[in-house]
Amino acid sequence: MTSAPTRPLRLAIIGAGPAGVYTADLLTKAERDFEVSIDLFDRYPAPYGLIRYGVAPDHPRIKGIVKALHKVMDRGDIRFLGGVDFGTDLTLEDLREHYDAIVFSTGAVRDADLSVPGVDLEGSFGGADFVSWYDGHPDVPRQWPLTAREVAVIGNGNVALDVARMLSKHADDLLVTEIPENVYEGLKASPVTDVHVFGRRGPAQVKFTPLELRELAHSKDVDIVLYPEDFEFDEASEQLAATNNQVKTMVGTLTNWLVEDQDSGASRRLHLHFLQQPVEILAGEGDEAGQVAGLRMERMELDGTGNVKGTGEYVDYPVQAVYRAIGYHGSPVPGLGYDELKGVIPNDAGRVLDASGTPIPGLYASGWIKRGPVGLIGHTKGDALETIGCMLEDQPDLWSAANPEEQAVIDLLESRGIEYTTWEGWLKLDEHELGLGAAATGSGTVQRERVKVVPREDMTRISRG
To answer: Which pLDDT tens digit goes with each residue over 298-320?
Structure first.
């Protein structure tokens, strides 16, 4: 076996979201007989990935996750280099020259496809794109066409509920969050009265969590509307509700809402529909040709196993916008193979594979780009642990970087004119955003903890200032 190296193992991690930070943290804590030096890259000037740009801002648990990630990064033993786009600013060949191993934790940021007629109509949106907008993602337009009074959200996962809640919630109730001013103004002007959420299967098969469900009831001046015909339970559904505490909780909550009178005369309504599958997004006529005017759904029925089958009965809903929230999908990573069906880098337990299925020495994957966009953020820790275990097992074959000095990659970025940001820069941006919140509070509005900076150039300027 190769003896321990005389210099630290140089590791590059591409993606500074939870998967990347957890991977770095676990390696620093792992039992090993060699030192490590870790650089954590991100294409955005700020860290945290999904936490900053993929989770609804009114989730209270976000703060806890951010604090945990902040604590890891603030130790000083992991170097953050933001504003660096892999594949453009740095290539795989560049990284191989400067690092002994590379972990890709680029996540999944685009919407899974929905193959129904009308999906390309004006007013048909990807849920992931809308999430990026209300989270102040720097690469999406500042404005969003919030002109519909009646809206459909297709999907029964946490993202679908996030999208529905953000669409139906009154903008003033979001001022306590970090939403940017352009998002507040857009939501404030929205004429929406009804948001319909559609799930293909029954209440016992939903993919959201009890916390997500309960948060719907916290929206002020928003009634929750359910329909008795959607509450069918076959034998498999009843058994699942009896043996799974999470399912039991959600079915109980939904059933209680159904029995209780939820009609308070609120100005907005959030409708939860089950056992319905999208068939077609309907276009308008005349001046509204090419625009969403409705959604055709097929009634489904449980088949005894918890799965569903079509009934041939169709229902048309008049809506002027449709949001697809049926899941995320990964994107190809330059220089690596890609499984289009799964949206992942082909890998074996985190070891990146070549076209023949053979592990490529020194290349690894972690997070959603490794296993697909499934599971909660907490599941990412176990996933990262598996990848790190493979790397430690492979350690004798990793020592190959020709130019491993920590300053070398900095010199390369500066020679190319890349305005990279650092952890110290993030602390400046963090302080600036908190200051914007304090200033807004001082002007007499609702108390705000922070206001998120949106333009990439402003984020970079503040971080490097």
So the answer is: 999 999 888 999 999 999 999 99
Which residue blocks in 30-150 are alpha helix, DSSP H? 50-53, 61-73, 92-98, 127-134
**Residue 226 and residue 232: Cα distance in Å, rounded?**
13
What does pTM read for this prediction?
Answer: 0.93
Comparing C-alpha atoms, which of 457, 451, 456, 452 is closest to residue 138? 456
How far is C-alpha 159 from the geometric centre of its chain's CA atoms? Answer: 8
Tokens of 98: 């400067």
Supply 415's token pair.
């020679």
Q: CA 392, CA 268: separation in Å to the nearest integer?
A: 54
Spatial distance between the Cα atoms of 216 and 222, rounded to a whole number of angstroms? 9
Phi-psi region for residue 257, left (φ > 0), alpha (ψ -120 to 50) or beta? alpha
DSSP 267: S
State how far the Cα of 424 lies from the Cα of 464, in Å rounded to an integer: 9
DSSP letter for 139, please.
T
Cβ contact 384:367 at 8 Å: yes
